[in-house]
Hints:
A: 4-stranded antiparallel β-sheet, B: 4-stranded antiparallel β-sheet
Amino acid sequence: AQSVTQPDIHITVSEGASLELRCNYSYGATPYLFWYVQSPGQGLQLLLKYFSGDTLVQGIKGFEAEFKRSQSSFNLRKPSVHWSDAAEYFCAVAGNTDKLIFGTGTRLQVFP
Amino acid sequence: EAGVAQSPRYKIIEKRQSVAFWCNPISGHATLYWYQQILGQGPKLLIQFQNNGVVDDSQLPKDRFSAERLKGVDSTLKIQPAKLEDSAVYLCASSQLSSGGIYNEQFFGPGTRLTVL
């Protein structure tokens, strides 16, 4: 069965610092992988996705993620965090259907 | 292009009452999803429609939850009777027609926050 683990429930960083959010997945084949962001009172917005090809994918708002098959990971990174990046971040996996399986999320807090 | 619309945005009810949520997907999107997001958890799929037919409702608690998409456009999710544990955000999403194993991006609405007292 597909599953997603986000080991960090809450992360706090200073504005301008680098960021890495961890995501591990479980799936028998190469999955479709996603990162979504959810601001308070807002729906989910897709940051980036990996389907195949280059394992380093670029997304919106300066985010990138790297797919590592050997580690079953798809970690999200940003070199310099802005205060507006404070939000909840969800990693998700989809197999050969449209069904998205989400992790439990990581809440990002940014200090000035 | 207008996004996925949901109403109401907030709803407070007492347990054992009934409630209904409405979703209007992006124009032309054949596939519609309802998710339940309990505080501190990621969204969980409740039901998926393709046009007006149900594709997957395996996670829908059918003794109290029902959903319909009669004309293949907008959709209603109903809870009757509500329980305390139904307090959550209910998200609607839509995507283009699914076919041939090609993944189509899901676009999410702002959600309806339900509080059951």
